[in-house]
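Pasting as-is:
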Amino acid sequence: MIKWIPGSDDLFIAIFKNGTVLIMDKERDDQTFNVPEPTSWVESQFNAFRPHRSNKYNPVSVWKISDKGLTDFAFAPDGMHLAITGVDGQMRIIDYRNEKLTDVFSSYYGKLTCVDWSPDGRYILTGGEDDLVTLWSFLERRIIARCPGHKSWVTGVAFDRWRCDEQTYRFGSVGEDCNLILWDFSFSALQKPKHPRALASSPPTILPKQWAPPPPSATSNAIPASTLPPTIQPQSALPINIERKKSLKSHRLFRGFSSPDTSSLISSSVGSNTSGSTIGGGGGGSSFGGRFRKRSSRSNNIFTANNDFSDDVIVEDQLKQHMPVLHPPVKKNQAAVLQPTTIKAIHADPCLSLTFREHTLVTTDRRGRIRTWGRP
């Protein structure tokens, strides 16, 4: 799959069945390259590198994301975040400008096949082999609802940007059951889960006062500014302001539990250090706390004034690991349900994609048929 990078006339992204993502420039010449083997668990989750020192050759950058195939990807309206789905049943959120994997979400069952963002960047849609459309909150980093209705694999999802406002979001999906299904999402339309306790495992979000793109570090693998497209500002997107708090008390509480990316995840770990959705958590979910290096003997007594620097160094070493936050799948009875408003058989063959236009809907099927429909 190939797509242009939003805001750029030259750069595009291609994903492949070997789990690799290439960032290419149409003005550069192509040249062969080798993908290095990962040397650590962190690199096996996400490894970004530049195969050529010269600015004359493609690819601009290479991301090794998985050993299994990638199925779909979509840019957020802000042009800075990228959602990628794969055969391994995971949706990965990547900070495109800093080339950093921030979050990994898992499907209920099977691989994920398609993904789309809401026009304001608040929500993400996925569909897959579990016959479900899943609605995720990007700001809160959690599942909002599962949307049943398909009788076979979901092959395409899309938000209807002409029917989305602050209260209601219209989105649709198509699948191998040849059906087109439409949903109108609002929190009042959700059927509450029977056992909602698991929803609390996802950290709450601290909404920012003002958005400021984080400056790339001098030692990071950030994409050079000359190759970056201009930032696209959505009408009502609320990206997360990245701040680092170096309170000694906070360091002691969130050590080994937090994500290196957002202060919201750090602050949430202070309040719930047994969360199962963060790496290294001490109370369930995936535990990777042992991956961090052991504490130095210099910082055994962290309550002395002379050890503030040692404590900061330990935390910074952990943050520099670029560990993503793993979000385990939520059980079926622990997620809210959103029922469809319209179900319509539209093709004789399995459907492949759905696109909303201002006055029509466009669908495709496996035989290559393209059909245009009036809005319901």
